[in-house]
Structure formats: C-alpha cells, structure tokens
Amino acid sequence: MKNDAQTIRETVRQGYAAIATSGGSCCGPSATTSCCGGNAVDDATALATAVGYAPEELQGLPEGANMGLSCGNPTALASLQPGEVVLDLGSGGGFDVFIAGRKVGATGRAIGVDMTPEMLAKARRNAAAYRERNGFENVEFRLGEIEHLPIENASVDVVISNCVINLSPNKAQVWREIGRVLKPGGRVAVSDIALVKPLPAAVLEMVEALVGCVSGAALIDDTVRMAEAAGLTDIRLERNDASVDAMVGTVQDPMYNQITQHLPAGTKPSDFITSLGLSAIKK
Predict the structure, then answer these.
(1) End-to-end CA distance of the chain
(2) Is the pLDDT of residue 157 over 90?
C-alpha cells in the first residue's frame, strides 16, 4: 500500500464504509456475523464488556450502534457531568455519543464527527431511536475529518475518542485540533491502540491491520509528546494489555490471530500493542 496520507484515508474510509453498510464488526463486513465468527450482537457486547463498559451503559442503546469497534471506554475516563458539551472523534454508528448523551443529560450536548458518510447515515438513523428511548434532543453528528474538525474554537468541555486517532495519517494535527476546540480547562479522554515497541514490517504491510487500528498506531512516548505540544497538561496514562489479549483469546479476532502469525516466535500481540487510556487537561 502506497504510504501517503490520502491513500491511508481512502483505505480507512472504504473499510469502515463496508462495516457500516454490511453490518460487520471489528475488522470487516459480514451480513450475519462479526469478525469473531459468532453472532455480531453478542460478540460486540462481549468485546465492549472486555474493554471496560458496564452492563448498564450498554442497555437501551439503538440497535447496531455498538459494532465492536472499541478498544476502551473513554466516557468512563472522561467522568462526564450533566450540562457538559462533549465531542467524539470518529463517532461511527454513534455508540459513545449515545452513552455520553445520557451522561450529560438534557442540558448537555454530545457531538459526533466522522469522515465516512455511511457511518454518519447509520448514526443519524440510530439517533431517532435514542431520542425516542431517552427523551433527549442532545445529540448530533457532523461529517468531517478529525484533522480538520467542523467545530468552533474553545467550544467543547470534553473531547473523547475510541480507537480512531491511530487511523489518522497526521496524528499531530489531530492533537492540535483537540487543543483548539477545547475550552480552557477542558478535558480529553482517549482510548486508543498504541505501540509499546515498533511492529515487525510484515504486520505494518497488512491493510487489515490498518483498518483494524493496529499498523497506524503511534508509540506511547510519541503520543504523549504530541498531546503536550497541543497544549495539554496533567497527562495520565492507563495501559490495558488485557484487552489486546482478549482479542486473541476470548474474542478470537481473526485479524489479531493473523498478526500473531507474523510476530517473532515466542511473542504475542500485547508485547507490541496495548490499549491505552489517555486523559489530559487543556492549559
């Protein structure tokens, strides 16, 4: 795959468009099953539970909002409060937006931004069911790239993102945009795939690993430097290797199993890859 920004964006866009339209899950489209080989709804719920979502957070969500695309629970890291404005980068079918919307309540607002029109259409359809079940008119979805957010300066209390920033070909620009849209004293809570150490070349060449949030991931130290350069402080990291192990063992994700085959003998994915929770505050 040619390694330029536009090619990477189009690869990701096409991959997630297929997931949105075909009803697939964490690493590809499938009409009736998730990439884990079982029932898509059951597998997505199992994965969400494995990466930190409480059962009550998953109850009552619009059908199809949870597509098994999470690698952590940024809404928990964010400690959302009633009345806050929260922005979700790469909001997909609206999973975290709907959870955030219930937490910020009728006086708050949850905004999702996604670059894939098919995902945006899915989220907007799901929003009708969310409003009917919760009685809140507090969610919206906007088309845009996370490197160029369609959001005003200093207008957001909290930025969240779930397994998306690693997909960007310009992560430093994403972090600058986070700093731009946050109010002074605003918070960021990101769950993302990060690298403990560089991946072998064979894994980096797998398109499946890019769409599955792995080969584009940054090293942990580089992520911290980008956040600091964007004006964020009080950076806290929470590493969760167990969620990566769950993708191989409990969930039996075929992408992670394929990655395992390309790793040096005696190593496993969590030796290279982790699910990283990062929280910080804008100065």
Answers:
(1) 39
(2) yes
Structure token pair of residue 272: 């290279």
- DSSP secondary structure, 77-130, as one string: HHT--TT-EEEEES-TTSHHHHHHHHHH-TTSEEEEEES-HHHHHHHHHHHHHH
What is the CATH number for 229?
A: 3.40.50.150
Query: What tokens appear for 115 in the block?
Result: 């670059």
pLDDT at 70 over 80: no
44: left (phi > 0), else alpha (psi -120 to 50), else beta? alpha
The tally of domains found in the chain comes to: 1
pTM of the model: 0.85
User: At residue 1, does pLDDT exceed 80?
Assistant: no
Domain carrying residue 56 = 5-282
**H helical segments located in the chain:** 5-22, 40-50, 55-58, 74-78, 95-104, 117-134, 171-181, 201-204, 207-211, 220-229, 241-248, 254-261
Amino acid at residue number 98: F
pLDDT at position 35 over 60: no
